[in-house]
Amino acid sequence: MHESRLFAIALTMVMGCTVIAPTMAAKPQPHTLTVGENFVDPIGFYDPSPVFSWQLPVDEDIKAQTAYQIVVRSRSSANAGTSPVWDSGKVDSDQSVWVPYEGPALESRQQVSWRVKIWDDQGRESEWSDQATFEMGLLDRDAWAAHWIELDQGERQPDQVQILKAEFGDRTADPPKVSNVTENLRRAIKRGSTPIRVVTRRLGGDPAPGQDKTLWVDYKINGVRKQVELPQNNSFDPFPAITAHPAYYFRREFAASGQIIQARLYASALGIYEFRINGQRVGSDMLSPGYTMYSKRVESLSYDVTDLIDQGNNAIGAVVGEGWYAGNLLLRKRTELMKLTPKLLAQLELTYADGRVERIVTDNQWRATNEGPIRAAGFYHGEDYDESKRLGTWSQPVFDDSDWMPVKTTGINEGPQVVPKPMPPVRVTQQLHPVKLTEPEPGRYVFDFGQNQVGVPTITMPVNKGETVQIRFAEMLQQDGTLYTENYRTARSQATYVAAETGTVTYTPSLSFFGYRYVELSGLAAGDTLTPDSVIANVMHTDFDSKGRFTSSHDKLNQLQSNIRWGQISNFIDIPTDCPQRDERLGWTGDAQVFLPTSFFNYHVYSFWSRWLQSVRDEQTDDGEIPHTVPSTPFGYSSPGWADVIVTAPWQIYVRTGDLRILADNYQAMQRWVAVYQRRSNGFIPDLTGWGDWLQPYTESDRKGDTAQDLIATAYFGRDARIMQWAAMALGKSDDASRYQRMHDDIRAAFTAKYFPNGVAAPGARTQTATLMGVGYDLIELSLRPQVEKLLLAEFEEADRHLRTGFLGTPLLAPVFDELGHPDISYELLFKESYPSWFFSINQGATTMWERWNSYSHAEGFGDASMNSYNHYAYGAIGQFMYERIAGLSPDPEHPGYKHFFVRPLVGGPLTSARAELETGYGTAVSAWELRDGKLEMEVVVPPNTAATVDFPNGRKSQTLAAGTHQFQLDFQSTGT
């Protein structure tokens, strides 16, 4: 990229020094030992051939590693001694991350310990590290003795609908203009395509052009005759409303016949579960085992439950909800839902002091009921809880379950593969307290948490016997202070609590989650005694640790960073979702594709993305196509900018981790997707269409924006070809690399000729996004590049110096203008206050990223409720530019994973300081700068075993730094932006 020309900096470096830490008295040792994708001492590990990582000793003299030795020991059972498994010997290598284990494949349940020592750049040998441990989960079906169990409810009979007669049109016309659409409706119901939208394209044509039309239907449901009359643009659904399942409760008692030295519970479900042993909750995870392509694989979790088992009588129980497996997800057909019942799988293994191992497994000795207090629980529906149906001590021994039902069993081999969960589960990670309590209408109490978020509340409230408390959620308020929920669309997203007795109760929904800033309670006779402390928000997300930190001298830029982080955790609920609150919450591949690089700066998300890419590969069709959502729903396949996640994500992860496995695991899937472009191309111009530059502002088209669909497809085809070239080079596939390089060159020639002939934008290419893609993806022939760059500047001026980009174009804005030598425009766009801009939503009170640039404004109110999420991370992709260019902490693709990195701060705009900190696999890297008293002060922290190249602002000679803390002070003169 071109470097900025914003400032003139004196050639004299006043100070350039390395800060030395105090000498350690003890001989140093490696630390921060992790296995796999940064796991620390895990139970239930998934990989029989793991990789190891560590960080170098903290010592002023140790800059780099030249050799290492790893020793791995194991024991096969809890009461066995350890034995050597693998000793690497001294290996001459500077590799300290993703070091492969080369011993015999590890087995289910195996308990492993390992340690490492290193030799530094002066040949000195370190002490051995402290011992790290991990324990394998159940790796395959052969390790399971359990069966899948479910409540045996008999065969569920579907509702029977008979369409007697249906007409569509205008009966008030003279003569009436109507058409008979009986067969249209019958076919739609047979296909399961309900509800049926009352529009001409669904009903076979327009019998009364220009007139208001109505659908009249005479039908029977389960033998009962009904008639409906629906105006145009409504929906006809003859079936009863689909509600959430009640929770399913499972239990079994058992006796422990001796002294137990170890107990492990291995658990999974088709649905989501919570386990209890002797009345105590097992684990702290939520919504487990998570969301996968259930027809191929489901995940299991492992728990250490040694302290929960008593000698003598015990009981184990589980409550299971529909979750993603059996829940009413968007576009899921009714006929499919009728066939799905949640199932449970569990294996409790008790190891006794005398060496015996006893297994308590899910089988026909378990009992089940769905007559417990959770009367309904679903993600869109919410949760309904009736305390009068509480089951008492159901998960403790000596409980009368004679009125419970037997279970139906299914063999482990008849279901999907069961694999250990390869990433952290969802957990409550923090709690928030309300900042305000209001009563906008009598009896409606609204708690404002000051922050849009995802999770469940804990409510302590006074209730009267038989009282039904309604708990509603919202991201926004109406002007009168009541909840605004129209943007939730058909998602009920509520909870209800029915009181069994009069008194004070505490309730927390457990089998659902909600996206909200506001909680409303109603139905409380004694609601006037509520206080702000009556409700606590439990924030939930996949439990990864924080990784990076960005701060600056500008309050709104800091708020933007906060909004990006909250948008990320709100939508990383086991999968990367588009939104966490309405009737969607799906793994949209396009949103993920644009945001992934930013996500790696904020949190440790490697395992999260690696596991989701496994689902992408699972969902890829035999001919290479990728669905719009993963796990897939019936939205279709192969949208440019969406399906490309299978190519862009592995490469971006590799650049940020340095782990070649992510490229190796995905390479064939990447190739197969690029082959789809090849098959669908004529002269390297694919005919694929999709979601376009989604939600571009000021569009003359629809939500898909004004940029030609074939241009977007060609741009991503070219981008993918270039990434495939780089990936092939990294994997040592030189022939592939050459082939993909030629492919990119051919695509570039075709792109330029069709969309920018002679440097002039063709129809469909006269958009900011089109030009940004051409320049940013290197698809403009070199001789025409200056002319196309001028087009981009002209488009910027024509837009009144504002952005005109949607989901796909926006991530390119700031980087491309910076690359073209116009960082002043990058800053101008980022700090713009008026619509459309990042700060516009902040000025309207946003605490997360919004789906639209104008989701809400003080002047005009709420945006289009049919597509308007207030917690949507896609536009948060700007975070990558904030870390990499404003603060200046940028990875080097040629030395990935921050083995070497660049410090390239973009000093300018209204900022007087910026700072980025990032936990890499080698330690914490820092790039910080501050303008003070006419000086530019810089701080650079280089972790041990790495190096960094500093590109000083305004072209001062670059300097490569070894490990250490380095500080610089430069004479400085601003030339403005």
UniProtKB/TrEMBL annotation:
Domain Bacterial alpha-L-rhamnosidase N-terminal: 259-430
Signal peptide: 1-25
InterPro entries: 6-hairpin_glycosidase_sf (IPR008928), 6hp_glycosidase-like_sf (IPR012341), Alpha_rhamnosid (IPR016007), Bac_rhamnosid6H (IPR035396), Bac_rhamnosid_C (IPR035398), Bac_rhamnosid_N (IPR013737), Ig-like_fold (IPR013783), Rhamnosid_concanavalin (IPR008902)
Assigned EC number: 3.2.1.40
Domain spans labelled Alpha-L-rhamnosidase C-terminal: 888-959
Name of a matching Pfam family: Bac_rhamnosid_C
GO molecular function, one term: alpha-L-rhamnosidase activity
Alphabetized UniProt keyword annotations: Hydrolase, Signal
GO biological process terms on file: carbohydrate metabolic process
Alpha-L-rhamnosidase concanavalin-like domain mapped to chain residues: 441-541
Catalyzed reactions per annotation: Hydrolysis of terminal non-reducing alpha-L-rhamnose residues in alpha-L-rhamnosides
Residues covered by the Alpha-L-rhamnosidase six-hairpin glycosidase domain: 546-886
Protein name per its UniProtKB record: alpha-L-rhamnosidase
Record lineage: Bacteria, Pseudomonadati, Planctomycetota, Planctomycetia, Pirellulales
